[in-house]
Design brief:
By secondary structure, the protein is an alpha+beta fold. Helices cover about 20% and strands about 35% of the residues. It has five helices and twelve strands.
Length: about 200
Amino acid sequence: MKPNSNNVSALNFKMLFFMVFCILLNSILATKSSFGQDNLRKAEKSFRDWSVFVSKDDPEMCFIASQSIKGEAFRNNQKLPSVNREKGTLYIIKILNKDSEYEGTFYAGYPLQVGSKAVLEIDSKEKIVFFAHPSPKAKAEKDHAWAQKYDQKKLVDHLKKGSKAVMSAISHRNTVTKDTFMLTGFSDALSELEKRCKSN
């Protein structure tokens, strides 16, 4: 199933702007330190593998995030000794609307194959498909993949119950990557997000 081009392309400027900060975030997750920017403050709180972030200026921009603990790459079914990329990062963004929905987003650390699928497998049982942008222009669109709207609640429920998740994705050079995320602290981080990120 291909992603709905209209849905993906409908990401507003605020979300694209947010994605740029997500890229910057990758350099500070390991130390939980501040951006040195005015727009986002340092992690509000950390729970083992997951950290909570809330915007200073825009209460609608808040999320939890975790970097992969292991990254592997394969080409022609052969494991590569190393690849030039940043660590993969998984985000759960809280969308402040009448239903207080979530949005699952994956930052690959490299340009993804256009319109490709990235599959998140939780505890080798449950699978959620993320889609790369079908016609990317901005860097944020090239490096990210998004879970579909109808899968968001299922994604969060599976992550709450799981212990480990592995994201398999395809780069623009046909390299297959696998990023392993630990889910320890996910539920606590999500609960903290609910406390800190509220609409007025």
